[in-house]
Amino acid sequence: MRSYEMVVILQADLEDHKMVSEDIAEVVRGLGAELEKVDLWGKKRFAYHIEKQLEGFYVLYTFKLDPAQVKEMERLLSLKPQVIRQMVVNLEEK
């Protein structure tokens, strides 16, 4: 298992960002990850339009996951309509 950080940008106009962030955390846990931290950064303005939107709600996840499951996690998150973008970073790379 490797350590990862993932930043997810959610649609800014959602009613309950905390509930959606918990749904994403369940997806991560469902793939066998050890979720260490979920940090809600809040609503921020984009430097440019992303999918015709000017703002997004940022959430940071820190977790340990088997490297073989990362692609599947990215695929599952790309299917969620509330997720505008996500980025996963391996914390152990040199």
From TrEMBL:
KW GTP-binding (keyword) present: no
One family name in Pfam for this protein: Ribosomal_S6
InterPro entries xrefs: Ribosomal_bS6 (IPR000529), Ribosomal_bS6_sf (IPR035980), Ribosomal_S6_plastid/chlpt (IPR020814), Transl_elong_EF1B/ribsomal_bS6 (IPR014717)
Transmembrane segments: none
GO terms of biological process kind: translation
GO-annotated molecular function: small ribosomal subunit rRNA binding; structural constituent of ribosome
SUPFAM superfamilies given in the database record: Ribosomal protein S6 (SSF54995)
Keywords, in A-Z order: Ribonucleoprotein, Ribosomal protein
Gene Ontology CC: cytoplasm; ribosome
Family note: Belongs to the bacterial ribosomal protein bS6 family.
Protein name: 30S ribosomal protein S6
Species of origin: bioreactor metagenome
Record gene name: rpsF_45
